[in-house]
Amino acid sequence: MMRSPRRYRLLLLVLGAALLLSCALSLAFGSAQVPLERVLAILAQRLFGISPEVAVNLGHDSIVWQLRAPRVLLGALVGAGLALVGTALQAVTRNPLADPHLLGVSSGAALGAVIVVLYLGEFAGLLSLPLAAFVGALASMLLVLAIASRSGRLESDRLLLAGVAVSFVMMAASNLLLFLGDHHAASSVLFWMLGGLGLARWELLWLPALCLLLALLVLLGLGRALNALMAGEHSAVSLGLEPRRVRVLVFVVASLLTGVLVSLSGAIGFVGLMLPHVARFLVGAEHRRLLPVSALLGALFLVWVDVAARTLLAPQDLPIGIATAAIGGVFFVALLRRR
Amino acid sequence: MQRLRIRELAWSPDGERPLLDAIDLAVDDGELVGLIGPNGSGKTSLLRCAYRFQRPSAGSVELDGEPLWQRSPRWCAQRVAVVLQEFPQDFGLSVREVAAMGRTPHKGLFDGDDNEDRRLVDQALARLGLSALAQQAFARLSGGEKQRALLARALVQQPHLLILDEPTNHLDPRYQLELLKQIKALGLASLASFHDLNLAAAFCERLYVLDQGRLVAAGTPAEVLTAELLLQVFGVQALVDTHPLAGHPRITWIV
C-alpha cells in the first residue's frame, strides 16, 4: 500500500495524467472512425487556438468536439461522482456493499424519467428528462431519510434497509407504468434506465462538474469524521462527533450528487460499488487520501467503459450500464479468487 | 483534582424501569478506578453515560467540574478518551492512522495534519511500543496489539480522563498484565470495567461494585472484595486472602 506521502502524490499525478490522456485518446473511438492525428489537431485548435496543418473537415470537428468531447467529460464526471459517493456511503453505513443505488436515489430518478417520457412529454425541452429524474431522486431521498430516522437517531442499518425498501417500491411503480404504457416510449425509457452518456451536451456539463466539486470538498472536509464513523458508532461519539449529523450530511450530499448524475446518465451500476474497493486496495482507508484516488479511478474507468460501449456494437450504442455491470461482475469474481 | 463526578445518576433505555439507579461515583487525578459486577449489572451502560454516549434520565455527570451534557460532544472528546472493543471486520487503516484518529476532536473541518499532530502520534506509538508496527494494517494485529493501538489513539487525544470497557478481555495473561501496567504508567485518571477480579484487585486504587444497576459497595480492593460480598453479588463461594507477594486481596473461587 502507498502510505508514504511522496508515493501518494506520485500516484495522484499518474492517475491525473492518465485521465487527461484517456480523455484525449478516447475521442478517437466511436462508430465513425476519426484518426488520432485529426482528433489531436481538433483539440489543439479548440483548446489552444493552434490552427491545424492539415485541413480538418467540419464533420470530424463536430463529431469530436460537439458529440464525443462532452460525452467523454460527462463519463469522467459521472464515474468520479459515483465512486466518490460509493466511498463515502460505504464508510458511513459501515457496509462494504453500499453503493449510490442502494439508497433509492436511482430508482426514484428512474420513476421520474418514466413519468416524463410516458405521460408528460417534453415539458421543458431537452431538460425535461434530467429535471424529472432529479425531482424523483430528491423525493425518494427524503422518503428514505424520513423512514430511517427514529427518535433522533439515524442508524446505518435502518438507512440501508429504508433505501432498499424505497428502491423496490419505486422500481415496482416504474415497471408497472412501463408495462401499462406504450412500447415505443418504453424502449426509450429502458435505454435511459440501463444507463448511457448519450445525453451529454456542452451546455449541461457545468452542473455535474459543480456538484462533483462541491461534494468532493464537503467529503474531504469530513475525512476525519468518515474515518471515525467507519470505526463504529461509539468510536465516533468518543471522538467528539455526532454520527447522526455526519450521516445526514453525507447522505444529502450523496443523494444530490447521485441525483444530478443519474438524471444525465441513467443508472450506471457497479462504479460506486467497485471502484472504492480498488482505491482502498491501493491507498488504504484513510478517507482524506482515499476519496481523491477513488474519484480519479472512477473517472478513468468510466471513460474507457464508454469507449467499449461506443465501439463494441457500433454503430449501435451499447447501454453503458450493461458494460459496467458485466465488467464489474467479472472483476469481483477475480478479486474473490485472489483473496 | 476530581476529574469525573457522577451524582444520583439514573438511566433507563425506555423511560420505564431504570437499568441504572442512584449511582454516585468519582474518579480523581492519577487514580485507576475499577468497576466490577456480574454480567448485565450495568457496567457498560454506566461507562456510556460517562463518555456522553447516552444521556442519563436523572442525576448529573460532571467532567472537570462542568456538567457534561451542557457541553458539546467535541468539548467532551477533548477531555475524555475511550478504549472500547469495537472495530469492524474489514478495517483498512494502518496502526498509525488509527492512532492519528485521536486528533479528530482537536481539529477543524479542513485542517491538515501538522507537525504537532505527527509528533503526538509518534510519541504515543513509541510509548506503547508500537513504533515498529506503525505502517502495519490494524486488522492484522493480534488482540493485545489492537488494544494497545486503541490505547495509543486514546493517548493522542490528550485526555484528562480515560475510560476503558473491559480492556483485558480476550487477552492472554501476558498481554493483560502488560496492558494494565501501561495504563497505570500513563498516570491518568482512569475508569475501567473488569471481569477478572484479581486483575482489578492488583491494579485499581479503588473499586465500585455494581449489582442490578445499583452500587452495592465502594472502596479499596481490600475493603470491597470480601467473601460475603462476592457471594451476595456474584452468587459464588470464594476464598479471599492476601496475595503473598503484592499484598492486595487474592480471590480463589470455590467450585
UniProtKB/TrEMBL annotation, chain A:
<feature type="transmembrane region" description="Helical">
    <location>
        <begin position="159"/>
        <end position="179"/>
    </location>
</feature>
<keyword id="KW-1133">Transmembrane helix</keyword>
<feature type="transmembrane region" description="Helical">
    <location>
        <begin position="249"/>
        <end position="278"/>
    </location>
</feature>
<feature type="transmembrane region" description="Helical">
    <location>
        <begin position="127"/>
        <end position="147"/>
    </location>
</feature>
<protein>
    <submittedName>
        <fullName>Iron complex transport system permease protein</fullName>
    </submittedName>
</protein>
<feature type="transmembrane region" description="Helical">
    <location>
        <begin position="101"/>
        <end position="121"/>
    </location>
</feature>
<dbReference type="InterPro" id="IPR000522">
    <property type="entry name" value="ABC_transptr_permease_BtuC"/>
</dbReference>
<feature type="transmembrane region" description="Helical">
    <location>
        <begin position="72"/>
        <end position="89"/>
    </location>
</feature>
<keyword id="KW-0472">Membrane</keyword>
<keyword id="KW-0812">Transmembrane</keyword>
<keyword id="KW-0813">Transport</keyword>
<comment type="similarity">
    <text>Belongs to the binding-protein-dependent transport system permease family. FecCD subfamily.</text>
</comment>
<dbReference type="Pfam" id="PF01032">
    <property type="entry name" value="FecCD"/>
</dbReference>
<feature type="transmembrane region" description="Helical">
    <location>
        <begin position="209"/>
        <end position="229"/>
    </location>
</feature>
<feature type="transmembrane region" description="Helical">
    <location>
        <begin position="318"/>
        <end position="336"/>
    </location>
</feature>
<keyword id="KW-1003">Cell membrane</keyword>
<dbReference type="InterPro" id="IPR037294">
    <property type="entry name" value="ABC_BtuC-like"/>
</dbReference>
TrEMBL record, chain B:
<dbReference type="InterPro" id="IPR003593">
    <property type="entry name" value="AAA+_ATPase"/>
</dbReference>
<dbReference type="Pfam" id="PF00005">
    <property type="entry name" value="ABC_tran"/>
</dbReference>
<dbReference type="InterPro" id="IPR003439">
    <property type="entry name" value="ABC_transporter-like_ATP-bd"/>
</dbReference>
<dbReference type="InterPro" id="IPR017871">
    <property type="entry name" value="ABC_transporter-like_CS"/>
</dbReference>
<keyword id="KW-0067">ATP-binding</keyword>
<protein>
    <submittedName>
        <fullName>Iron complex transport system ATP-binding protein</fullName>
    </submittedName>
</protein>
<dbReference type="GO" id="GO:0005524">
    <property type="term" value="F:ATP binding"/>
</dbReference>
<feature type="domain" description="ABC transporter">
    <location>
        <begin position="4"/>
        <end position="237"/>
    </location>
</feature>
<keyword id="KW-0547">Nucleotide-binding</keyword>
<dbReference type="InterPro" id="IPR027417">
    <property type="entry name" value="P-loop_NTPase"/>
</dbReference>
